[in-house]
Amino acid sequence: MEEGRKLQRITRTAKDPIKLRRAIVVMMSGQGQSVRDITSLMQVSDDYVRDVIHAFNERGFDALDPKWSGGRPPAISSRVREHICLIAKTVPSEWGITGHSTWSLKTLAEHLIARGVVAAISREHLRRILRRGGVSWQTTTTWKASNDPQFIAKMQRVLELYDHPPEGGRVVCVDEFGPLNLMPRTGKRWRPVGSPARLRATYNRYHGVMHMIAALDLATGKLYYRIRRRKRWREYLSFLKTLRARWPGQKLYVIADNYSPHKHPEVRAWAAGNDIELVFLPTYGSWLNWIESEFAALRYYALNGTDHRTHDEQNAAIAGYMRWRNARTAPKTNFAASSPIRSWTSYPAKVA
C-alpha cells in the first residue's frame, strides 16, 4: 500500500518523462493489468514492460531513475575548442582575408576547415562551441583615452572629496544636461505582448532647444537645477550664485568638467572671491562626475518614451521627476568603491 501511494505521488510530480513512464508501467502492473494492456496503452514494447517490472522488483524505486550514460566522446577536443574561440576573437583581415570586417558563422566555419583546425563543423555546432567558450556576438563600442598629464592627481583629488568631504565645506557636482529637444523619444513601458506603444516618426523643431544646468549635493543627495535657453558662462555663473546663496557660510567644492564656460575668467574670479573652489575633472574624465549617473536616470524615467509638444510640458515632466527623486534621496557615499580606478597609479593604456 505504501509503495502504491508513493508511485501515485511520482506520477503526479515527476518531471522526467522516463521516470514518469516507468512509474506508470509499475503502477499498472500492480493494479493487475496484463503486459499486453500496458504495451497497448503506453505504446512501448513487451520487453520494455517486463524489464521495468523486473528491475523494480530487484532494486525498488531506484530502478525508476534513468541511468544516463556518458555518450560518445566529443568529436572536437577541448584544446581545439579553445583554439576556435581564439580565432573567433580575431578579425578576418588578420588572416589576410579581404572583403570581410567580421566573421559570420559560415565564413568562420569555412576558415577553420581551410586551415585544418577541424575536418568539418556545422554552424550550429560552432555556435554552441563559442557560447560555451564565453564568446558572444557584440556591438563594437568606442573609447577615448585621456591626454591629461595630471590625470591621476586630478582623479585622486576628486575621489578624496567624494570619500572625505572637508569639515565645514560642501561638495557639489555640477554639469549641463541637454539639449532638451521637443521630439519623440524611444523608451520602455509595460504593454500587451506584441503591441508596443507607438510614437510619431516625423516631427519639426519649431520651438528651439533648452538646456539644463544641475548640481548634485553629495551631503543630501538632492539635485538642484535650472533650465535656460543658453548655456554660456553667464548662465553658469548665475547658477553658481544660487548655490552660494543656498549654503552661506560653507566653502563650496564645485566639481565640473572642462567645458569652456566653466573656466571663464569671470567665473574663476567670482568663485575665488566667494569661497568657492573649482575642482576640474581630468580631460575626457566626465565619468568621474557623480552627477552623470543621475542624468542617466533622469533621461530614463522622465524623458524616454515621451513626445512632449511644448517646452512647458517637458519642463513640467522634469520638475515632477525632480520632486519625486529629491523626496526619496539619501547622502551619496561609496563612489566606485570596488572599481579598478581605486588602484591606479598610472593612466591605463585603454579605458572603456
In spatial order, strands of the major sheet run 3-2-1-4-5
> Total helix count?
12
Can you give the helix content as a percent range?
Answer: 40-55%
The CATH fourth-level homologous superfamily of the largest domain: Ribonuclease H-like superfamily/Ribonuclease H
Number of beta-strand segments = 5
CATH topology of the largest domain: Nucleotidyltransferase, domain 5
Instruction: Report the β-strand fraction as a percent range.
Output: 5-15%
Low-confidence stretches: none
Please identify the top-level CATH class of the largest domain: Alpha Beta
* CATH architectural name of the largest domain: 2-Layer Sandwich
Tell me the distance between the termini. Answer: 67 Å
Structural class: alpha/beta
Work out the count of structural domains.
3
Topology of this structure?
Blueprint: H1 2-13, H2 17-30, H3 35-42, H4 46-59, H5 78-88, H6 105-114, H7 123-132, H8 151-163, E1 169-180, E2 210-217, E3 223-228, H9 233-246, E4 251-256, H10 265-272, E5 276-280, H11 291-303, H12 311-326
Protein name: IS630 family transposase
Domain Tc1-like transposase DDE: 170-312
Pfam families: DDE_3 (PF13358), HTH_32 (PF13565)
